[in-house]
Amino acid sequence: MSTSTTTYPFYQIDVFTDKGYRGNPLAVVVVLDPALPIPTTEQMRQFANWTNLSETTFLFPPLDPGADYRVRIFTPTTELPFAGHPTLGTCKAFLEHTGAANHKGSHNKKIVQECGVGLVELLVSEDGSIAFAAPPLSKKGPVEEDKVQVVCHAMGINREDVLASQWIVNGPHWFALLVKDAQTVIKANSQPTEQSKQFEFGIIGEYPSDLRQNPQDPLFEVRTFPHVDGIDEDPVTGSFNAGVAQWFMEMGKVPASYIVSQGTVMGRQGRISVRRDDSDVTIDERERKVWIGGSTVICIRGTVEISKE
Q: Which residues of the chain have pLDDT under 50?
C-alpha cells in the first residue's frame, strides 16, 4: 500500500502560564497555506491520538468572512466544538505564524475565531496575553443529585462540603461543584469510577482572604476531569472557567475581575484571568461580555509529517 506524506508547520504552546512547561500544552498544526492538502478527519484524529495531549488543533483559513481563521479541536478520542485553552493557543500560533504578533497595532486588537460553536471573539492585550469572550451556555441549572453523589464518591469529598452545583455546558458538557474552600479542592483524592468516567466535571473552592494580598493572587482553586474525552485530569481549562465565571457573576458571587489557579496538584502553575466588560453600564451586568484570558508561551517550533495511506 502506497503512502503520501505532507509536511506542515507545527507549534507546541503552553497556555495559561507565563513560564513554559507550567501550564497546559497544546499542539497546533498549521494548514493556512492553500498549497497544502487539507488533512482528512481521520488523519487529524489519529495525529491527536498520537500527541496524547488534552487537545490538538488544526489551523485553517476561515470559511466565514467574518473570521480571521478557522480551527478544529481534537482530544485523543473525539472532536470538540469549542475549548478554552485550544482557543488561546491557536490564536497565539496564528499571530506567530502570520507575523501579526510583530506588527504595530497587534496588541489591544480583536481576533475572530471560527469553530464548532460559531464565531468566538478574542482580544490580544498590550502585554501579549490573549482572552476569549465566554460563549453562551447552552445548558445551566443545578446538577442532579445522583451525579453530585457519584462525583463526591470518586473525589473523596463529603457531600456536606458541596455548597452548590451547576451545569455549565458551552461546548463541552461540563458541570461544576462549588466546595467549601480551596484546600478541599487540592486535597480531593481522585479515584475515578466507571460512573464518574461518564461525566465532564470540575470542582472549585475559594482561597481565604488572608492569602489574597494583591490582585494577582488567585481567588479560587480549580480542578477539572474531562473523563469522557479520554483525559483523567486537565491541567488548566478555559471552557470550564468560562462557564463558572458566568454562573458566579449571575449569582453576584465574584468581583468584576479575578484570578483562578489551576494545576497545583499536577505540579503546574496555571493562572486564568476573568474579567467582565463593564465599559457599557447600560447593559445589565448579567448580560455583559466575560473575557477569559491568560499568557501563552511557545515551547516548540518546527514541522510535522502527516501521512495518508
A: none
- Angstrom distance (rounded) from CA 261 to CA 253: 17
Distance CA(143)–CA(132), nearest Å, equals 26
Catalytic residue among 55, 114, 206, 221: 55
* Beta-bridge partners for 59: 30, 71
pLDDT value of residue 192: 94
| Whether the model pTM is above 0.85 | yes
DSSP structural state of residue 234: B
Is 55 annotated as catalytic? yes
Nearest CA to 263 among 22, 42, 87? 22
Q: Is 304 exposed, middle or buried (0-12, 13-18, 19+ CB in 10 A)?
A: middle
> Buried b / exposed e across 63-96, counting CB within 10 Å, b at 16+?
eeeebbbbbbbbbbeeebebbbbbbbbbbbbbbb
CB neighbourhood size of 38 (10 A): 13
